[in-house]
Amino acid sequence: MEPEELLNENRNSEDPKKDSPLLSLERDLKFFHESVREVAIEIMVEGLSNYPIFIAHQHELSLGELILDRHDLNTEWSIHASTLEEFVEKGVIKQVLKERFIQSYKNPNDFMCVFVVVPEGANFIYYPYPK
């Protein structure tokens, strides 16, 4: 899924003034990108995983480790750091789908893999680090 799909860009809406809450996620990811990249590199260098995953949410979550708290940073989204291995261990990604996930995983030096959790559900996006 492309970020534009989650952000509902170019979508005809009954209420054009109502923005997707994920527009605020894009703002926060731009703000967080340096910290997220540092954590991703640390996860890989320390040998914890070759597949860092960041979880963006606006409520309490018991997956991964909190690295950026929206309350402390006065942002709309909190970010947890996790790994593919934890997602498989906790059953978020089924063992039989692990290889498919690895095949679709984008270069972690260029993209942050973000598992976005919203009331309607959750999905993975790959958000590019600014150049």
What profile does the largest beta sheet have? 5 strands, mixed
Task: Please provide the ordered H/E string of secondary-structure elements.
Answer: HHEEHEHHEE
Which parts are unreliable, with pLDDT below 50 for 5 consecutive residues or more?
1-17
Gross morphology is globular
Mean pLDDT: 86
What keywords describe this structure?
disordered N terminus, alpha+beta, 5 helices, 131 residues
What features would you describe in this structure?
- The protein has 131 residues and is an alpha+beta fold.
- The chain has one domain.
- The protein is built from 5 helices and 5 strands, in the order ααββαβααββ.
- A 5-stranded mixed sheet has the order 2-3-1-4-5.
- Strand 4 and strand 5 (121-128) form a beta hairpin.
Short description:
The chain is an alpha+beta fold. Helices cover about 35% and strands about 25% of the residues. The protein has a 5-stranded mixed sheet with strand order 2-3-1-4-5.
